[in-house]
Amino acid sequence: MDDAQLLRYSRHILLNELGIEGQEKLLAAHALVIGAGGLGSPVALYLGSAGVGRITVVDHDEVDATNLQRQIAHTLERVGQPKAESIRTAIAQINPDAMVRALTRRADAALLAEQVPLADVVIDCTDNFATRHAINLACVEHGKPLVSGAAIRMDGQVSVFDSTRPHAPCYACVFPPEVAPEETRCATMGVFAPLVGIIGAMQAAEALKLLSGMACHLAGRLLMLDGRDLSWTDIRVDRNPDCPVCSHR
Q1: Among the options 139, 170, 173, 186, which is catalytic?
Q2: Residues 185, 127: contact at Cβ < 8 Å?
């Protein structure tokens, strides 16, 4: 690190859990953020400000005025722009040293097969069941840790799925693909604005811990937040020996 970086990241370097070695790992790391909305906004901003060297942001959508209630990376001036491009601009305004690649594409199987192997961690900030399972499958196939978050109405959840760890489940172990829930979207069900910030910040924290070599304690745990009274439910989850995705790995 040069003198400017030592100054910029000095509050990280002062942490015993992180230090210079951990910060250097962040500077050399590559994070793949899938989804540039309510969750992806705080995730990408924190990763960029914390010094993650390379960040790839994937989102096919454009910024809409209704997004601005909760998607804090976007601005009124960037309504109509691709969300991935808008987040790249937002990160550059905080930390121009971060190398941010914006992909205005859907996170389909072809894109995931191309991008997941290149990343050190994958952060799922999407909002539909099929995409979440596609991301999980790609992470299992390529041995990449997955930080997963979700938020709707007043409820949120966050976990880390790293099937390379003994006994740690993948997303499909906890949410079987054959038991698809009824899709709920912000456009019809609403979402409490700070809720996506809380969950997104926790996703960023877990991703930074994974990338820097700090201990990560969310693998095998699902944290669920009730935003009405700010109560957390901590559920221990094990690998499903019959999981259709990770049981043969």
Answers
A1: 186
A2: yes
